[in-house]
Specification:
The chain is of the alpha/beta class. The protein is built from 6 helices and 19 strands. About 10% of the residues lie in helices and about 15% in strands.
Length: about 525
């Protein structure tokens, strides 16, 4: 076993080591002492390209969902990627996985978690990355023993407890799988060469998340900025894709499913379906090589001076890096639009690392949410737990769930060892045809808030009332969708959600120039998905 990542956390730069912690509030050394310009420390696998920065790039970009020629037809019981691993980690970008059919009686449970993988030390210990120390002035706060030092373990333990009764069908993973700098393997090895040379997969993932209700349950994931390296792109982000085919590894349980940087999947339940769109939006942390060196995947200061290449899959060099992420995001925009346009599922759910805030694609997501009726966006990056579901928010009646409190890194604000906070935790979704109940579960096992969301129709700017018989939120101290007590907020929160107010659709939309037809047919026995198949623009 070995310590993960670099000699310094890949966030802001620091010119001097952090001051000593006072005796009154002792804190363990969560990461190695920082240095101003550390050298990458990674394992180099067979087949990794040498330093050839000018080799031809073959980045795979698809602008519409597609299926492999040999795809399994019909419906399958588990999520499946292609039978054979691809040559490059980007080769399956945009792929649509075979439909998964699940049976039984609902509600059907799905967990979600993000920013969860702590730093694996030389001695085998796993500790959260320390982002609250004095070397990060904007995030500095006291260190809390019993919370900060065991954050990932506490969240994982509560997932085990909850899974024993909820029995989730699968887990949504919003990225930042390993801190500080992802899988500490040099990028560029063939995608069919999955490896756990660093021990991170076994210790930080496989052994951490196990038990009744979790064993055998697949994790459908996306990449976060730290999976690329935080302030470099040369770490093993492609290994986070390769591990999808790592079934032959002695430590793998075959649960990992991240077949590409972006992909889609449909889950068919007995009386409804869900379309998932998994995105890589790390373009929002990739800048000019000399810009923002402390928080820039494409940083000239922190990418290696020699060997800064991931081979033909890209980026092929530091100079290529910003354009590589930009091209990726532009293709994903077209791909997502096409996928949403064609979707006739009851629910549309987007999974990404960066939440749709401000410069992180807020305008685009507001537009698509209004045009195509995105029901739910699940993200992380913010190291906390929150939900926004409000007519007056920028995305209107599209619920935004942030679950970046998985415990791989210290939280935004001061946690409570008892778990009475919204800093560390995960999400338990209960899915039915008429609503999705969102329960935010803390690291102490407390349900911090319960929110029920209803399907959003195309061009719908207000929260639809609950159309079923009895809401899952009934009797839980909440107000079902459309309830008289709160016309804007779907539920009464035990902790106030953070969100900006604004228009419920993009400012450029004109009702005079675009046409919308069809309404969601809520009555039992009617075509439940009709409203999302008759939209024209």
């Amino acid at each position: 076993r070995r310590a993960a990542a670099f000699g310094a956390p890949p966030f802001e730069e620091t010119a001097s080591p952090a001051p000593a912690v006072s005796a009154a509030s002792p804190a363990p050394a969560l990461v190695a002492s920082p240095s101003a310009s550390p050298s990458p420390d990674y394992v180099v696998l067979p087949g990794t390209p040498a330093a050839r920065p000018f080799q031809e790039e073959r980045e795979m970009l698809k602008v519409a969902p597609w299926s492999p020629v040999d795809e399994v037809t019909g419906c399958v019981g588990r999520f499946q990627a292609s039978e054979q691993a691809p040559l490059h980690a980007t080769d399956l970008n945009g792929v649509r996985l075979p439909d998964v059919c699940l049976t039984g009686e609902g509600p059907f449970h799905v967990f979600a978690i993000g920013d969860w993988g702590g730093v694996l030390q030389d001695d085998g210990a796993i500790r959260p990355a320390d982002h609250r120390s004095a070397q990060f002035p904007a995030h500095h706060r006291p260190f809390v023993i019993g919370a900060d030092d065991v954050a990932q373990k506490k969240v994982a333990e509560q997932m085990k407890v909850r899974a024993a009764t909820s029995d989730p069908d699968y887990i949504l993973n919003v990225g930042d799988n390993f801190y500080w700098g992802g899988v500490t393997v040099k990028c560029g090895a063939p995608a069919y060469f999955a490896s756990d040379a660093t021990g991170q997969w076994e210790s930080v993932f496989e052994e951490m998340y196990s038990g009744i209700g979790l064993d055998g349950k697949q994790w459908l994931g996306v990449l976060g900025n730290h999976d690329y390296g935080g302030w470099t792109f040369t770490m093993g982000w492609d290994q986070a894709i390769s591990y999808t085919w790592g079934h032959e590894l002695p430590t793998s349980t075959g649960r990992w499913m991240t077949p590409a940087q972006y992909y889609s999947a449909r889950v068919r339940y007995p009386d409804f379906s869900v379309d998932y769109f998994f995105l890589d939006n790390n373009v929002f942390d990739s800048f000019h090589p000399y810009d923002q060196p402390g928080h820039n995947i494409c940083s000239r200061a922190h990418n290696p001076g020699v060997g800064a290449t991931c081979g033909q899959q890209g980026p092929v060099s530091v100079e290529d890096c910003p354009g590589w992420f930009k091209r990726l995001w532009e293709a994903e925009n077209m791909w997502l639009r096409k996928g949403l346009e064609e979707s006739d599922a009851r629910w549309q759910v987007v999974v990404a690392h960066f939440p749709p805030e401000g410069a992180w694609g807020e305008d685009m997501f507001a537009s698509y949410s209004f045009m195509f009726g995105i029901d739910l966006i699940v993200a992380g990056h913010r190291h906390k737990q929150s939900i926004v579901y409000d007519d007056m928010s920028t995305l209107g009646p599209t619920a935004i769930v942030v679950t970046g409190g998985g415990g791989g890194i210290t939280s935004e604000e001061t946690p409570d060892p008892s778990g009475a906070d919204d800093q560390y935790g995960f999400v338990d979704f209960s899915l039915t045809r008429d609503e999705i109940m969102v329960e935010m579960v803390s690291h102490g096992g407390q349900i911090r808030s319960t929110t029920c969301i209803t399907p959003r129709g195309r061009a719908q700017s207000t929260i639809a009332p609950f159309a079923g018989v009895v809401s899952m939120c009934e009797g839980r101290g909440t107000v079902p969708a459309g309830g008289a007590a709160d016309s804007g907020l779907i539920s009464r929160m035990t902790s106030a959600p953070a969100g900006a107010s604004g228009p419920s659709h993009a400012p450029w939309y004109s009702e005079e120039s675009d046409s919308f037809t069809g309404r969601r047919l809520e009555e039992s026995g009617q075509a439940a998905d009709a409203s999302k198949s008759t939209f024209h623009i």
